[in-house]
Write a structure and sequence with these properties.
Distance between the termini: 72 Å
Helix content: 25-40%
Largest sheet: 8 strands, mixed
Shape: flat
Order of helices and strands: HHHEEEEEEEEEEHHHHHHH
Number of helices: 10
Bound molecules: 2-acetamido-2-deoxy-beta-D-glucopyranose
Radius of gyration: 30 Å
Number of strands: 10
Structural class: alpha+beta
């Protein structure tokens, strides 16, 4: 009886501190003694930036001058179990709100460049955040008119791509996000020339886009494509951009000549070749013909393709 009582007493003593007192603080004190190294770094009440490792430095501050005052400031939003922090022209981070020792904190993007369309700054891209499968987390920040500076909304429209809405009185004027007025005079003049060349049909619309992009790159609004992730994605289309109508006509002439040559080779070897319209209709509407199956075989063994992908 005495032995049982003393065991019960010991048990009560052990449980005592945990059931009384403010649990997190007590737990924190105990954990510091047990795991001094990891706990300090993962404590949600301590600044966590020390363990966030940015992959690169942010781009220089750029864009409309009246927005520069946002640089160096940070705005946060707590949504369900996460706290999001936006530091314009620097970074977007995410901090899990939990008492667990291994709370998650991550970088959702580092200030990269503006998104520009129709002479308007459409959003701020924060890229090269923490790894997410084979890519990096990235965030697009949209600036909308509001009574005060406020991170108003965060969502994840596709995996590891975040959409942030930042409200600020700085963009309430209808002209506040226009690109042309933000440019230095020399670049405005270059833009004028590009518009003139387009009107005079001296450049194609692709050439126009390319020349305008160069103006935005020089202004520091866009980053050059070399070496960036987006360059690798767009690389395939690069050879198809023609700066002038002359370039385009020349390329068209050469391609027509090549098609003629290839057709004559096919005829020489007695291989039937129809107009493109006929092939596409048999592919989409007609039943499968032997030639379709041959085409499939020519594409290669599906198993083999699966291995190489
Ligand atoms: C994010 O930006 C803020 C504000 O400039 C800076 O203090 C902080 O160190 C940055 N965090 C990271 C992880 O780079
Ligand atoms: C382009 O911006 C102008 C105002 O700057 C606007 O009136 C027009 O509707 C916009 N066009 C498109 C396609 O967004
Ligand atoms: C386009 O044409 C210009 C001169 O008309 C030439 O200098 C340039 O190399 C050409 N570009 C391409 C991609 O053919």
């Amino acid at each position: 009886m005495a032995a049982r009582l003393s065991r019960l007493l010991r048990l009560l003593l052990l449980l005592g501190p945990a059931t009384r007192g403010p649990a997190p603080a007590a737990a924190a004190k105990m954990k510091v003694v047990e795991e001094p190294n990891t706990f300090g770094l993962n404590n949600p009440f301590l600044p966590q930036t020390s363990r966030l490792q940015p992959k690169r430095d942010p781009s220089p501050v750029s864009g409309p001058a009246h927005l520069f005052r946002l640089a160096g400031k940070c705005f946060s939003l707590v949504e369900s179990t996460y706290k999001y922090e936006l530091c314009p022209f620097h970074n977007v981070t995410q901090h899990e709100q939990t008492f667990r020792w291994n709370a998650y904190s991550g970088i959702l993007g580092i200030w990269h460049e503006w998104e520009i369309a129709n002479n308007t700054f459409r959003g701020m891209w924060m890229r090269d955040g923490d790894s997410c499968h084979s890519r990096s987390r990235q965030s697009k920040v949209e600036l909308t008119c509001g009574k005060s500076n406020r991170l108003a909304h965060v969502s994840e429209p596709s995996t590891c791509v975040y959409a942030l809405t930042f409200e600020t009185p700085l963009v309430c004027h209808p002209h506040s996000l226009l690109v042309y007025p933000a440019l230095p005079t020399a670049l405005q003049q270059r833009w004028d020339q590009v518009e003139q060349d387009l009107a005079d049909e001296l450049v194609t619309s692709q050439g126009y886009e390319k020349l305008l992009r160069a103006v935005f790159e020089e202004a520091g609004y866009l980053r050059t494509l070399e070496g960036s992730e987006s360059a690798q994605q767009e690389g395939g289309a690069k050879g198809l951009v023609f700066e002038t109508l002359d370039n385009c006509s020349k390329a068209h002439k050469e391609l027509s000549k090549e098609i003629k040559r290839l057709k004559s080779v096919l005829t020489q070897h007695g291989i039937p070749h129809g107009k493109p319209a006929e092939t596409s209709s048999s592919e989409h509407l007609g039943p499968k013909t032997p030639t379709d199956r041959t085409a499939e075989q020519l594409l290669g063994d599906p198993g083999l393709r699966g291995n190489t992908l």
